[in-house]
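Justification of computing resources. Each target in the renewal requires a structure prediction run like the one illustrated here; the chain below, 87 residues long, is used simply to show the kind of job we budget for.
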Amino acid sequence: MDSSMIWGLVRMVVALVIIVPGAFFVTRWYGRKHTVGQDLRIKEALSLGSSRALYVVEWADKRYLLGVTNQAITLLDAECDNEEVLE
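Resulting structure tokens:
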């Protein structure tokens, strides 16, 4: 092997040592900034039997009561309080 081939190999290894960790950290940072669903929270869940449930979901400081089955998700009430759900 001549010296130009060795230097080319060294440059390629150095470039990979810089690029691969850089790409890893950039994608991790970007993923944290742009994650979906950070503001959506399930506050309560109540099973009503097989394939039926009620969920109280909080999103954008509002609460929603959802009825969920295998075929559909239905908005039952918007901005309900915990006391209303328990009654």
